[in-house]
Each structure stands twice: as structure tokens, then as C-alpha cells.
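User: My instructor asked us to take a sequence, write out its structure as C-alpha cells, and then describe one feature of it. I'm not sure where to start. Here is the sequence I was given:
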Amino acid sequence: MRAFFMKFQVIFTYDPEYEAYVAEAVSLPGCVSQGKTMDEAITNIKDAIQGYLYVEEKHGNYRFSEKF
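Assistant: Let's start with the prediction itself. The C-alpha cells for your sequence are:
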């Protein structure tokens, strides 16, 4: 299996009401996560992106896959 890397632009904002960081993957509609610290938000958005891509591939959308 060949490994490959993809980059996605992520916007981080601080939510003072929640007292945490919100992360949104710009090119993946609805792919949003959060974390109490920036490190936690980064880890969580990476996991959210991985899950998003997995679901897209399972539904036959190969836009983000090697199969494209």
C-alpha cells in the first residue's frame, strides 16, 4: 500500500463562551471539531478529517482518494 499525504486548510477560532478552540476544514463541508486547547483542537480536526474522507470513500465519492 502506498502512503500519500493530503493538506487541507483549517481555520481555528477561539470561542470565549465555550472557552475552547473551534476548527473547521474549509474544503470539507460540515467538517468541524473543537478542543479545550489548540493541541486538542488540532488532534480532533485531524480525526474529523480522517472520518470525513472515510465516509466519502464509502459512499463512492473518490474526490479525495487515490482511486480518483
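For the description part of your assignment, you could build on this observation: The chain has one domain: 10-61. Try explaining in your own words what that tells you about the chain.
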